[in-house]
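Schema walk-through. Below, the input block comes first and the output block second. Nothing else is stored per chain. Lengths vary across the set, and this one has 202 residues.
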Amino acid sequence: MTLGPIRRVPVYRLLLAFAALALVAGACGVPIDHDPTPLARSGVPFGLLTPSTSSPPTSTAVSPVEVTVQIFLLSPNGHLVAAARDVPFPAPLTTVLGALVDGPTNAEAASGLQSAIPAQTVVLSASVGAGVATVDLGGTFGQLVGQTQIDAVAQIVFTATALPGVGAVAFQLQGQPVAVPTANGADVPVANRTQFATLAPS
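--- output ---
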């Protein structure tokens, strides 16, 4: 068999072909760094190279300030006894009377102290004007009778008048003014400590 003449391909065409193949191969893959490569500072997003100077948020809650007041309970011999209670400052009369309605602590009850004020008593409001505290009560307080009622009134009178500026107490039931019994049984519209002298702390 006789071969035809061999065609010679120019060298520059071969080089162009190899270059085209190299470009195609490079476009089909993602270059991989086999070792860590430091990133130039210009390639870091703004602000990441600056250390943060902000501090973690702190709680701004403030513990309530408390003040010690006196409430009056009943001793086994029937006399009033002062007991200390810590209440939030500035210790409004409603809060102090609320502590009185709560009655004796477990330790106080174990020592014989008690209260004639029913636990179901509700202090609807309490205000002070011209030295007289006006106390509006709800719940079961109005159901008290006899010596229990006198004792309960005495507890409130002594507790309220232990606060500065209070010299007497006017009572209301559900917003209606009422007279209350004193130690000698007389009903009065406004009560003070001297009317319960026989129950005063000994």
